[in-house]
Amino acid sequence: MTMPMLYPRPDVAEGLKAAMRHVASSVTVITAGRGAARRGITATAFTSVTMEPPTVLVCINRGGAAHEAITRAGHFCVNVLCEDATDVAASFAGMTGKTGADQFEGFEWVETASGAPAYAYAQAAISCSVAACHVAGSHSIFIGQVEEVAIDPDRTPLLHFNRGFHRLGARR
Ligand SMILES: Cc1cc2nc3c(=O)[nH]c(=O)nc-3n(C[C@H](O)[C@H](O)[C@H](O)COP(=O)(O)O)c2cc1C
């Protein structure tokens, strides 16, 4: 290959991490559970899967509290964050020192059709019931059947790129 950095097979995990750092993504918080049992996690591993039926997927670390909450509740909500929600992203990425239900404190939430909490000022909140779960190494791929969607089309997304949060640039 002619690109400036090449990671041969023994270093391929490092190479993948470096490559993924340079993928610009929307930032979501995946939530599940109710009241004191609610949990959340900042995640970029989110995509739609099909429209027939309407399904999405999220990849969640099996070792964390959010994984247990999604498994127990059988639901999750994908909260797509807007550009001024870096504090929400930081809270659910474990950057503030808060854990568990305390990570929801200071932010406004509404209960969705599935029962999962939706962030009141999200760009989009996609409420799902768990349709399937596939183990993939350290993570589970949760497939969600979409039950309810709320969007605010006037908001612009929070992006993650190269270990930092960014705003969307001007349209080209
Ligand atoms: C920008 C960003 C994206 C992330 N994406 C994911 C993801 O898609 N899936 C995941 O399991 N963890 C992801 N993480 C890591 C979790 O947010 C983090 O490990 C978790 O909040 C730590 O929670 P814990 O201390 O309860 O394990 C991401 C972190 C950041 C900062």
Automatic annotation (TrEMBL):
Domain of life: Bacteria
Sequence ranges assigned to domain Flavin reductase like in this UniProt record: 20-167
Keywords annotated in UniProt: Oxidoreductase
One Pfam family it belongs to: Flavin_Reduct
Membrane spanning stretches: none
InterPro entries from the UniProt entry: Flavin_Rdtase-like_dom, NADH-dep_flavin_reductase, Split_barrel_FMN-bd
Molecular function via GO: FMN binding; riboflavin reductase (NADPH) activity
PANTHER family: FLAVIN REDUCTASE (PTHR30466), FMN REDUCTASE (NADH) RUTF (PTHR30466:SF1)
Name of this chain's protein: Flavin reductase
Species annotation: Paenirhodobacter hankyongi
